[in-house]
Amino acid sequence: MTLRLIVLISIAVAIPMRLSAQPVAIASDQDRTVTAAANTQPHDFRTDDVAGPSARGPVANDGAAVDEQPAAAPPTPEHTGIRALFYNVVEDITKLPALQNAYIAAIGGGLALAAHPADPTLNAKLGGHWDTFFAPGKYIGGTAEQVAMSLGVFAFGRLMDEPKVSHLGNDLLQAQIISEFLIEPLKLATQRLRPYQTGHCGLNCSFPSGHASVTFADATVIERHLGWKYSAIGYAIAAYVATSRLHDNDHFFSDVVFGAATGTIAGRTVVHHASDYWAFTPTPLPGGGVAILVSRTTVAHP
Q: Quick one: average pLDDT of 252-266?
């Protein structure tokens, strides 16, 4: 029974991250609804509503051909030092109000609401089982440990003159900063007590889970730098950390579900990636009505 619960929890916290890669566009007229997929071939239509160059790399519109290839890794910036880190954090904050981030937040909120009925009982079912297995979770997802890991990646890249590695470390640090930037105001605003608390939670509130957020942020950064194949272990660790927070009675189920969504938003925001750039173009249909055509741009690499 406990193993089945762990599997279900892992699936639940991973859903916001999986659904974040599914942009949807719809179109309608008076009599019908038309769905326009991202790989629609706009042979008879053109649009100027495309993304401009990114600060971290030139942008080229490849049309439908982009959808036939896996998304390229983000371009390595010229500077990956500490100064670039703080400059990029400010830039990333301005990119948080994005439509796809709103989708992820809505999905995460809906899943957290769906998980809420299990909050009073789920922790008790997990507690007392696999104590040794879950013991490292609170350390793996801790702020100090996560920052140390990211600094290690960053320092290795700088010392070994590997810009791609230092870029990865830089983005991991940025994701952790953005994660905290999102999490702490939500904790203060909701003032939700942790399962073991009574009275007031002060600055140590429950919703959403910071451990879940930061580990899913890291996993999302790894996925966007290296692809799904290499990020699988990152998402497995993130799901493990989220489940350990329930086992240790530090969070409710809905806390870690929404924390996973928040971390996914942080990870997506800091990595300027081809799939960030989408253009939605209203186009008249033959015989009347309007369709929404969707085009995607990609970062050009030398």
A: 97
